[in-house]
Amino acid sequence: MKTDLMMHIPDGFLSAPTSGVFWLVSIIVIAIALRRSEEEMDERGLPLMGVMAAAIFAAQMLNFAVTGGTSGHLLGSALAVILLGPWAAMLVIASVVVVQALVFQDGGVLVMGANLFNMAVVGVAVSYFVINLFNRLGKGKRWAILGGAFSAGWLSIFIASLSAALQLAVSGTSPANVALPAMGGIHALIGVGEGLITAAAVGVVFAARPEILQHGASAKATARGIWLAGLLLSALLVATAPLASSHPDGLEWVAEELGFIDTAQEPMFEMIPDYVFPGIENEALATIVAGMIGIVLVTAVTLITVRRKSADKTV
Amino acid sequence: MTGSHNHLDPFISASSRLHTLDARLKLCALVIFMLTTVWLPVGAWAAYILLAAVLISAMLLANIPLRLLVRRSLAVELPFALIAMPLLFRPGGNEIASMQVARKAVVLTDAGVVAFSSILIKTWLSVQAAVLQGAVTRFEDILFGLRGLGYPKVLSAILAMMWRYTFILSTETRRMLAARAARSGRAQESGHYGGSIFWRMGVTGGMAGSLLLRSLERGERVYQAMKARGYDGEVRAIESRRLTDTEKWSLAVLVILALLLLLAVRQIYRG
């Protein structure tokens, strides 16, 4: 079983307004990242980001046995930030998310905005904030680099999972008092793996090519916006999580007020306990008609394809 | 060029109308289909049946064994059924069964069952549509379609580069995994993995580190090779052809059909 599956929300698990809002946020942030990374990186940036996106994608195949048949593996936001700096990392992780959704159905298409937000925006911003913090405490020292790598790996996974859980709760898919502790709890554990792998990987880079770490996130002080975003997102999500899970109805109320939960389902739920089915004739009829249309359609297509195949054979 | 050089590529080669259709049309149709699905209310069975019929027809037209496509979508969906489980016990509606879990009454409600099965069906419709689109569209065409639909030039250049090196780097990763398996003894039967879990994570981290280092260096080499061929930092791409009137009209018809379906569903299920 893949342990990161909950980070890639599939289609159907988020309501349309939730997906829309996160598409908007992600597009704006990625557009900024696009401009900033063009300013910061010279012409060698493009091939580098392409190859590194492939590398992060491939590195996610590196797994390790946890226990029994379960295995954990890397997500890589923190690693990308350390090696490439925050803006380029955002584009790289976003590219990985796009390919995973469009080609491998790992994460949905309509909900891709939310997945981009969790992994490319939250994951990267939180990682950058932590790494930068450690770097300020002990500039260029081994403990600061490794400690920063571990903490960034852990916190980015944990915070991103809280963000995903809140998205599920706001969509009415999973109640906040179930989604938040479950997702947060599991990812607090998975995050340890991410942190240790990130630290070990950075250790290799530090031993072999220490100058690379000077170019990456540790040195750049230009991304103050991301730094603040990382701090705010961490603080906000950590503060909201216990609040939302102790008052799940509150979140649902907010969601309903904002129209996040489909209001069309309300009459449905009210109807059943009263044993009044004003729409039943309509509904039953509609289902039967739909079933008949469906059967006709599928049969017609089957006949066409079968005929075409036999025609191909005789030619 | 029939097959793909990339063993990860989910593209399945076959001759069908769906394969030759313009990628922009397929991507738009996919998004229209998914939007229709997500906007359907809970328990709109008639509409689910109609959409499933449309989807199954499309799968038949693709000339690819159905069980291949269905197996892929189920592999994606099944783990998520677990996450939606709490919906079954959602308050409201009539009690179907109840049990005591940790001294708390857990009540299975009909409203919960309706909500749970609706989500599973809606997710299957979307995932299956995405699986189909991935199976009948080459990645190069998806990329070209994205460009035509306004995906930024630099980002699509990154995607193109990424796709090219995914094959090479995943092969490299496989070699590393084989080397680890050969050296650190992963005897599952005996429960020994060659070291503690922290040791295992450290080894994996070292592998990730050297993979990324090699990739950074490869990125440098790629840049130098591009430079030698005249790369100046500017991304150039072939402009995509304009959609024909027939193609535009068929998209418009799709949108209208989707809107009609949504309207009809609102009428019927509001009672």
| Tally of domains of chain A | 2
Radius of gyration of chain A (Å) = 24 Å
Query: Major sheet of chain A, described briefly?
Result: 2 strands, antiparallel
Mean pLDDT of chain A: 81
The general outline of chain A is: globular
Largest interface: A-B, 109 and 113 residues
Per DSSP, the total helix count of chain B is 9
Number of domains of chain B: 2
Shape of chain B: flat
User: What's the end-to-end separation of chain A, in Å?
Assistant: 47 Å
Order of helices and strands of chain A: HHEEHHHHHHHHHH
Beta fraction of chain A: under 5%
Number of strands of chain A: 2
Molecular structure report:
The complex is a heterodimer of chains A (315) and B (271). In chain A, strands 1-2 form a two-stranded antiparallel ribbon. Chain A is globular, with a radius of gyration of 24 Å. In chain A, helix 3 crosses helix 6. Chain A has helices at residues 16-40, 45-59, 77-84, 86-104, 112-137, 142-170, 176-208, 210-215, 224-246, 248-257, 265-274, 280-314, and strands at residues 63-67, 70-73. With 315 residues, chain A is mainly α. Chain A has two domains: 5-257, Arp2/3 complex 21 kDa subunit ARPC3 (Orthogonal Bundle); 265-314. The longest helix of chain A has 35 residues, at 280-314. With 271 residues, chain B is mainly alpha-helical. Chain B folds into two domains: 17-88 and 115-148 and 241-269, no CATH class; 153-228, no CATH class. Chain B is 68% helix and 5% strand. Chain B has nine helices and two strands. Chain B is flat.
